[in-house]
Every structure is written in structure tokens, then in C-alpha cells.
Amino acid sequence: MKKSIITILSGVFFLIAGASCNEIVDPATIDFEQWKADKEAHNNDPVYTVYTLNHPCLLHTQRDFDYVKQHLGEEPYASALTKLKGSQYARTDYEANPVEYLARLDAGNWSQMGGRWEDAGIADLWYQGIHNNYTNFMRDAAAAYQLSLLYKLEGNTSAAETAKNILVKWATVNKGILVNKKGEIIDPNEKLILFQPYQAAIAIEMLRDYEQWGDTEEFSRVVKWLDESFYWLAHDQLELQNNTGGGHYWWNWDLAAMTTILGIGVVSENQDYINEAIMYYKGLGGGPGNIFKGVPYLHQDPDSEEMLGQGNELGRDQGHNTLCAAVLGVFCQMGSALGEDLFAFDDYRAIAFAEYVAKYNLAKEQLYPDPMQNFSSQETGVYNSDFEYDHSGFPFETYTYGDGGTMTEPSNVGRGTVRPGWDYWVGYTNTHGQSAIYINELASRIRPDGGGGHYSGNSGGFDQIGFSTLMGYRP
After folding, report:
1. What is the average per-residue pLDDT within 154-177?
2. How many C-beta neighbours within 10 Å does residue 177 have?
3. What is the mean pLDDT of residues 403-411?
4. Bond into 76 cis (ω within 30)
5. DSSP sequence for 311-353
6. Backbone angles phi, psi at 139, to 5 degrees
7. What are phi and psi of 67, to 5 degrees?
């Protein structure tokens, strides 16, 4: 029986920093004022940079749009565009469904009014389904992005208008996440909403030139909503990691926070935000968003000259491990749009990580469904023999991390998870002369990738933005 290797999980993360290649001199709260004053925090650590923002410069640049438009009649771009245009979230009659307060809470504790709602002093806000109403935002953010892509690639002004209206409605109705009467987060899981704001930010950035929207008060109001609703939440995540140095929060939490901060920083032209995200990544962060902690160990690949980077969530499960690869690829591509080569940082440490993820999750070719189909179902019964490389052949350094305890080998849980985003890695490595055997092989088997709506209807199908074949692939 043909088996589809499709397992999508939503996020949570972190790791042990024991064997980092770069000692963090001071993991305390980042002091940006000091950095701006002397331009150097500690000797060789990253410095505050003033970036030139040549809009659009968030994930996609005008050069990217020009390139893709010139090649839309060729493969794989033609099939990738067909996939975009067939998406239920790229319809010009799409209607937004904003909510007043966003929540991403587990049903066991929050689905019924009373108990925790009363303890938080917000029982008056409860209604059926409020605990998981973030799904409205995940769908609408995906729609805003996909419609904005149609506008930029085909000049579809109806798509632009629909995308703009989605964002304006959210800025009008939404007041951010659900908090208690003191303005405090009521549950750490609410931070997982941070997988959506960066997608909204990318859509906002693409719509700047639509009827000169970027020069209007309405545009400023949308940006202000995004900033005031989500920056503090993302910043709190990174500050928490700085102050605790470990625990419940795995790598994907930091990646969501960093990508959101970087996205808001670009659309709001806030250099402090941009620097916060990038410097955290480049070694000044206390959590695994710091690439030396997110990828604590490097191994020589036993089958090639490649280096394999052991990621924070490799020993946890592959649903989260592949999520890290998908979001890290977007984060690094965002850096490229600003002229900051995060893929290359520390001798291509991020690429070594993506190579390990790709190799470990590379199933045999016949197990992948038609790439033009939607990945909407999940089939169990995946075995070691279904993969190109045997589980026992992968190098692994034992480590202990937070809720994960001590991990001694790559986890088989969720092995073979298919997520979009691999062609951002391919596009970079192909154009920068970097070998990436396993990234290229995995990407070729799921090309063209889709986005929100193509990888199941739950959160795991929307926590990454997708459509990397369309916008990121370069031969």
C-alpha cells in the first residue's frame, strides 16, 4: 500500500547550550541602548546595524518579483503559480473573520467557562470556542499573504483589495491576545500565536505600493495594530529565555518570536526591532533562537562531505524539528532581503542544520504523493525501511533539555513530516555555491510546495508561510 509521509504538528521548543561553539559572555537581558552607544557589546559579538530599507524588503524584494515574473512560463514556477491560484485562500471573494481577543489555549483547561477564566478575572469574555479562535487569524493571515502574492506577480488589483481589507478588518476589530485584568498572559501557549503575525507583516509589506497604500493613515493604523498587539508578546518570549536559560520553551517558540519581531521591525521601519531579532540569532540570545544553542552540535556526515547540524528538537520529534527548518529558512531569507546573510553565519551553521533535518526525514521517493495534490490527510505505519537512510546511521550527541529530559538519539516520532519551505534553502545554496545534497533531494520530491491550506487544516499546516518554490527556487 502506498503510504503518504505526512505528519504536521504545531509548535513548542528549546535546548541545552552545553556544547555551544561560541560562549555567550552575558546571557542577561539585551541592552540595546548600550549597543547603540558604543556599537560593540562584547568584543566579537554582533553589533547594532542600521539597515537600508528598500521596500519591499521583507522576505521578498522587487528583484525577486521581477525574476519570478520573467520565469512564470517555465517550470517549476508555472506549476507553483497554478497551485497558488487554486488555493481556497487566494480567492478574491475571501471574507476575513477577525476576533476581538485572540487565544490559543488547550481545550483541557480553557474550553469551558469557569475555573481558570474566573481565576484570571475574565469569565465575562468567555464564549464557546474562544480558547482556539487563533485559527481565524491563521487562515486570514494565510489568505492575506497568498492574495498579496497574486497582486505582486500578476497585478491582480482585486486580490490586493481583498488582502488589504483582511488586514484593515483585523486592525479595526482585534485588540491583541487574551490577557487577564492585569494585562498579563494567561497561558504560555498563547505565544504560539506568534507564527501568524510575521505572515501578516509580509502581506502588509507587499501591499505598500497598491494605490500608494503605504503612504496612508490606514496603512499606519494597520502597522500600529500589528506592533502594539504582538511585539510585546514576542519580546517577552525572548526576554523569558534570557532570564531563565531553559525549560518548557523549545526552539520553535523563539523562531516564531524572532520572525515576528523582524517582520514588525521592517514594516514599521523600527531598527531596534530588526537588530533585536538578528542579534539574538547571531549569538546574543539566551534561548535556542541563538543559533549556537538552536544547533549546539555539528557532525561530519558519514555518507558525504556535508556537515550535519544537530538541532534543538531533533531528539524530541520530527514534527517540531521540521517546523524549525521551515521557519528558520524564512527567517534567514528575511535577512537576505535586508542584505544580512544569515544562511552563511558561522560557516553556514543554519544550512548544516537543514541538511540534517532533510536527510533524516527523506522518505523513499514512491511514498510521496503527487506534489500538485493537497497534503490534507495523514497515514500512519511509517517504518525505518521507508526512509533512504537508516536510523542507526545518524550521529547524535546526547543532551538534556527542559521538558524533553535526556535525549540519546534522533526521535522517530513524526519522521517523514512534510512541510513547505525547502526551496528557500535550495535557492540560497544554488546561488551561493553551497553543497546541499539532502536539502535538494527532499525539496525535489515535494516541489512545487504550497502554503496555508495545503498541509492539513490544523495549526501545523499554517505555522509556516510556504510557497517557497514560487518565490525562492533558483536553479
Report:
1. 98
2. 22
3. 90
4. yes
5. -TTTTT-HHHHHHHHHHHHHHHHHHHHHT---SSHHHHHHHHH
6. -70, -45
7. -65, -50
Dist CA 258 CA 280 (whole Å): 8
Is pLDDT of 335 > 60?
yes
- 243 vs 48: CA distance, rounded Å: 21
Q: Are 313 and 361 in contact (CB under 8 A)?
A: no
Q: CA angle, corner 114, sides to 110 and 118, nearest 5?
A: 100
Q: Give the distance, in angstroms, between the CA of residue 218 and the centroid of all CA atoms in the same chain.
A: 27
Cell of 277: 531579532
Residue whose C-alpha cell is 546511521 = 393
Query: Taking residues 437-446, what's their average pLDDT?
Result: 97
At which residue does the C-alpha cell 521592517 appear?
Answer: 266
DSSP 3-state of 300: strand
DSSP bridge pairs for 310 = 297
In order, the DSSP letters of 187-224 are: -GGGGGGGGTHHHHHHHHHHTTTGGGGGGSHHHHHHHH
CA 55/CA 271 separation, integer angstroms: 14
What cell does 155 get?
Answer: 497585478
Answer yes or no: are the C-beta atoms of 28 and 409 closer than 8 Å. Answer: no
Q: What is the pLDDT of residues 257-295, one digit of tens each?
A: 999 999 999 999 999 999 999 999 999 888 999 999 999
Give residue-wise pLDDT tens across range 216-237: 999 999 999 999 999 999 999 9
User: How much of the chain, in percent, has pLDDT values that exceed 90?
Assistant: 79
User: pLDDT-based confidence at 44, cuts 50/70/90?
Assistant: low
